[in-house]
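Quick one, T. Sequence first:
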Amino acid sequence: MLHHSLMDSGAQNPRPALEAGAQDVGARIRRLREERGVSLSELARRAGVGKATLSGLENGTRNPTLETLWAVTAELGVPLAVALGPAPASPGTAIRGTAVTAVLLEVFEDENVTYELYRLTIPAGATQTSPAHHEGVTEHITVFSGTLEAGPAGSPLTAGPGEHIRWVSDMPHTYTAIGDQDVHAALLIRYPHR
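Structure tokens:
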């Protein structure tokens, strides 16, 4: 499946997304899957992750990558913060992807939309490819330092300090820190309710 091949191609050094709490995240993923009446095999297939990976995540024996969490929550039609829990990150707690380190700062609920606000750090020269979110999800990034190339995998946008970019992220998308300076940015993800 597309998600799986994209995650593998960008994941030279996959690392666990969470330093602690993987068991709680796994239990939430299982509950969300069961509430939707989806089998483990079907969710794994649709998310493009291995059945053993998803089983290990749900049982708390595997600490997933950020890319895996995004793929699974996209197929469940929920924001990432729903899987992370009611207090997913205390100040300074990071969620790590292949290249991106994100700290969830706030979750905002509106009538038909959920917003997640993250502080991002991307090391100079690093690239991460992330799977598609569910339909209609958009990402908005404001760069504070460094130069960022991000957006749809086939046509990313570029932003430097003080600049803002946005795109519809219901397709595979990338984040790359261009040049010799780390990127520090704010990411707002807008999830319309399904």
